[in-house]
């Protein structure tokens, strides 16, 4: 509860800083493989992954984004009714806090993502529409970044079919082998 309350107005900053601090602590403690850390997250966690890749590239060997938020302005306009006003509490009121929305939207930092990135998205996602991932992938590629992208037809905000879960796991493992495991 305390952490949730601390996120008020700080989403996209505090969560990223905490994750980066944990990654730094792992390195400082000499954890095996700390030089090959790969943040993986979905939805809000996907946004954290993207922001880590853009703002703490020295910590990330690669990243895996599952239907992550990429554009807070777009999310404010398109998200489903259940979360329609949630951004006001965790980011701030528009238009007064427009600079926060801009600074914390991964789409605006896409050119800074240089580590390999895997993006997985459902075509029927009502929480974070496919267009968010489409735009991010195009922006990272346009800046010369390496992105693998897969859209799962008919899937929403998370996977409902066993074959999609299996594909996600196989695809993620292949991505990690290609860009992280064999890179040593």
Any overview of this molecule?
With 184 residues, the chain is of the alpha/beta class. The chain has helices at 2-6, 14-28, 44-55, 72-78, 86-90, 98-103, 130-142, 162-181, and strands at residues 40-42, 63-66, 117-122, 147-152. Strands 1-2-3-4 form a four-stranded parallel β-sheet, with helices on both faces. Helix 2 packs across helix 3. The radius of gyration is 16 Å and the shape is globular. The mean pLDDT is 91.
**Would you tell me the structural class of the helices and strands?**
alpha/beta
General form: globular
Radius of gyration: 16 Å
Q: Tell me about the largest β-sheet.
A: 4 strands, parallel
In sequence order, what are the helices and strands, one letter per element? HHEHEHHHEHEH
Helix content: 40-55%
Parts with pLDDT < 50 across at least 5 consecutive residues: none
Total DSSP helices = 8
Fraction of residues in β-strands: 5-15%
Number of strands: 4
Strands ordered across the widest β-sheet: 1-2-3-4
Distance between the first and last residues' Cα? 40 Å
Please sum up the structure shown.
The protein is of the alpha/beta class. The chain has helices at 2-6, 14-28, 44-55, 72-78, 86-90, 98-103, 130-142, 162-181; strands spanning 40-42, 63-66, 117-122, 147-152.
Keywords:
single chain, 184 residues, alpha/beta, 4-stranded parallel β-sheet, 45% helix
Summarize the topology.
Blueprint: H1 2-6, H2 14-28, E1 40-42, H3 44-55, E2 63-66, H4 72-78, H5 86-90, H6 98-103, E3 117-122, H7 130-142, E4 147-152, H8 162-181
Parallel strand pairs: 1-2, 2-3, 3-4
Helix pairs in contact: 2-3
